[in-house]
Amino acid sequence: MTTTAPPRDFYDGATLHIRCYDSMHRSVPLLRGDLAFYEALARRAGGPVLEIGIGTGRVGVHLAQAGLSVTGLDLSPEMLRLAARRAADSGCADRLTLVQGDMRDFTVPASGSFGAVIVPFRAFQVLLTPHDQRAALGAFRRHLRADGLLVLHLFDPNLDFLQPDVLMQDLHGMDVMTGRRVEAVMQEATFDYVAQVRRDRWRYRAFQADETIAEEQVLDLMLRWTWRWEMRHLLELAGFTVEDCFSDFAGSPPAYAKEQVFVARVTA
Q1: What is the rounded distance in angstroms from the CA atom of residue 185 to the CA atom of residue 171?
Q2: 183: enclosing H helix or E strand
Q3: Fewest CB within 10 angstroms: 61, 78, 110, 125, which?
Q4: In which residue ranges of the chain is pLDDT below 50?
Q5: Angle between the 34-45 and 58-65 helix axes, to the nearest 10 degrees?
C-alpha cells in the first residue's frame, strides 16, 4: 500500500479523483438535463463553443458529437488526456480542440469569435477570490462575439451544509487506469466564512480484488460559494447583461439551496 502525504489538490496530477471522475459522477441528479440545455443554448448562439473546465469531456464531446465546433480549456493535463480519449472514441475529435490553460488568463484560437462560452458543473467555483472571478469573467468576455452568450453553473449556498460537522456522503467509482474499485470518504470540512471559501478533505482508496488497499490518497478541494445577487453584480461589472437565472436545467425559477444557472449576454 502507498499513501500520499501531505494532502494533494484534487487535480494535482493523475490523482484517484481524476482517474475515477467519470464513474463517480455518472448519475448526478443536479446535472439532469444539462447536456440538452447547453446544446440548445449553443445552437441559439449560432457559433463555435468555448467550454471552460472541460474536464474529461462529458459536455464538450456531447456538443461535438451533435455537430458543433468546440474548444475546451482546462488547467489539468490529465483531465485533457481523458477528454481527448473520449473524443477519439466518440469519433468527433475533428470538431474538438483542447487547450491547457488557466481560466483567469488565457487566449485560445478563434478568440473573439465564440458564440457561446459555457462553464458547467460549478467549475467557476474553484476561483477563490472576487479578483480571480473578475479576471476570469473578463477573459470569457474577450473570447465572445459582440452578441455572445455566457452560461455559468454554480450551486446556490445551502446554510445547512456550510457547517464543519456536516459532511458529504461517500462516493464510489472505478479507476479508469487499473479497473480497481475506488471509495472516497470526506474526512473534514473547514470554512473561511469571510472569504466564503470551504475546504473539503477527502480520503480516496483503491482496492485490490481481495479488498486490500492498493492505493490511498488524501485530497483537498477548495471552493468559493457565491450568493445569487453577488454573482449577478459580478456579471454586470464584467460587461454582461443577465438574461435568465434558473435553479435547474429544466428552466425552473431561482430557488434557495438548489442551483444557479446564469445565462448572460455581452452588454452592447
Answers
A1: 7
A2: strand 181-192
A3: 110
A4: 1-4
A5: 50
**Looking at residue 202, what is its pLDDT?**
96
Q: Cα angle at 200 between 199 and 202, to 5 degrees?
A: 145
Instruction: Determine if the pTM surpasses 0.85.
Output: yes
Say whether both 196 and 233 belong to one domain: no
Q: What is the pLDDT of residues 165-183, one digit of tens each?
A: 888 889 999 999 999 999 9
CB 200 within 8 A of CB 168: yes
Residue 18 lies in a domain: no
Q: Is the domain of 237 the same as that of 196?
A: no
Q: Are residues 204 and 95 in the same domain?
A: no
Task: Please name every residue paired with 260 in a beta bridge, in sequence order, or none if there are none.
Answer: 154
- HSE at residue 53, side-chain half, CA atoms within 13 A, is 19
Q: 134 φ, ψ to 5°?
A: -65, -40
Do 232 and 217 reside in the same domain of the chain?
Answer: no
d(CA 20, CA 182): 7
Assess whether 124 and 253 both reside in one domain.
yes
8 Å CB contact between 197 and 180: no
Instruction: Give the CATH number for residue 106.
Output: 3.40.50.150
